[in-house]
Write a structure and sequence with these properties.
The protein is of the alpha/beta class and 344 residues long. The chain is 35% helix and 22% strand. It has two domains: 111 residues, Enolase-like, domain 1 (2-Layer Sandwich), CATH 3.30.390.10; 222 residues, Enolase-like C-terminal domain (TIM Barrel, Alpha-Beta Barrel), CATH 3.20.20.120. Helix 1 packs across helix 2. Bound molecules: magnesium ion (MG).
Length: 344
């Protein structure tokens, strides 16, 4: 098999402000793995907080291409991914781009959609939330009008204006909300007070209220919180579950954090054994990585796979959102078609 990769930059429709920063773009790398004239597509999305960029991903993929070149087919994904994972500790997004491309290629070779490998029914997909980042009230209202078909909104909090933002949203919609604080609340007491205030506002859950390594604070909060507390930045890979399971009610699984579908599936199974809720999330990603994650979505309690909705230069067509419901197609692999090449 042959591995190729191309850097690309995703542009947000609106500046994307969360508790820790504001961004207008996200660096990504698109991978292709070719075998018998078929191409499997993958993607690495690298928001800065992951500590990975196009250069480190390209360096990693250059090394990984030698391993991929040793295999004639993608059929033993677990074995290949174990070797890819062992190359370096980090580069989880670059690893995910390989894992996604291998799954896409395997599906294409065997003419099967990926969800069928886990015996999932495509009718059982959840709705996706759509993210409303921190902004001025008039922009928040405009954004909400633009996503009127989506039944769940994900609200970014963790600024000085949290209550104002919720009041603004409640002035124009009573849809259920999920809340993502992105580590933005300063103390566990402040977090508990805010959660009690949020409780009567039709909130599904609160994601990452405290700093990612504040496990004792998160455990204190989870014991007292009237709303489910979900780990995102605190939970990267399968081995993190041992710690996180005692401090949160659920976890946000993202392919870019956990090296792809192979490990994401294992995390879901382990989470269920530990009676944790599962949110399937994403970074800013094209329809390539989102369509890959969507293959696992029938296993999730909630999904937040809105990446393609937030960007203006998608490269792929794949999973659709029909009135917010994740809608898989019958195409083999991850179910995507490439719309154009990376060069603008
Ligand atoms: Mg989050």
């Amino acid at each position: 098999m042959t591995l190729r990769y191309t850097p690309y930059t995703l542009e947000f429709k609106y500046p994307f402000r969360i508790a820790i920063n504001t961004r207008i773009e996200t660096p990504i790398v698109i991978t292709e793995i070719e075998c018998d004239g078929l191409i499997g597509y993958g993607e690495a999305s690298m928001p800065p907080y992951l500590g990975e960029d196009q250069q480190t991903a390209s360096d990693f993929l250059e090394q990984a291409s030698k391993i991929i070149g040793e295999y004639k087919t993608p059929l033993d994904i677990e074995i290949i991914m174990a070797r890819i994972d062992a190359v370096r500790i980090k580069n989880t997004a670059a690893k995910a781009s390989i894992d996604i491309a291998l799954h896409d290629l395997k599906g294409k070779l065997e003419n099967k959609p990926c969800y069928s490998y886990w015996n999932l029914q495509k009718e059982n997909t959840p709705f996706t939330s759509v993210t409303i980042a921190i902004d001025k009230p008039e922009i928040i209202i405009k954004k909400i009008e633009e996503v009127v078909a989506f039944p769940i909104l994900k609200i970014k909090l963790g600024s000085e204006d949290d209550k104002k933002i919720i009041r603004t949203i409640r002035s124009c919609t009573d849809k259920p909300l999920s809340v993502d604080v992105n580590q933005g609340w300063k103390t566990k007491e402040q977090a508990l007070e805010m959660i009690y205030w949020l409780r009567d506002n039709n909130i599904l859950f609160v994601e990452q209220p405290l700093l990612k390594n504040d496990f004792s604070g998160s455990a204190w909060l989870a014991e007292r919180s009237p709303l489910p507390i979900i780990a995102d930045e605190s939970m990267q890979r399968l081995h993190d579950l041992e710690t996180v399971k005692n401090c949160f009610h659920g976890i946000n699984i993202k392919l870019m954090k956990c090296t792809g579908l192979t490990e994401a599936y294992k995390i879901i199974i382990a989470a269920r054994k530990n009676k944790l809720k599962v949110l399937l999330g994403c970074m800013s990603e094209t329809s390539c990585a989102i369509s890959a994650a969507a293959q696992l979505s029938p296993l999730a309690d909630w999904a937040d796979l809105d990446g393609p909705l937030l960007i203006k230069n998608d490269l792929f067509e794949g999973v659709k959102f029909v009135n917010g419901k994740i809608t898989l197609n019958d195409l083999p692999g991850i179910g995507v078609k490439k719309l154009r090449e990376e060069k603008k």
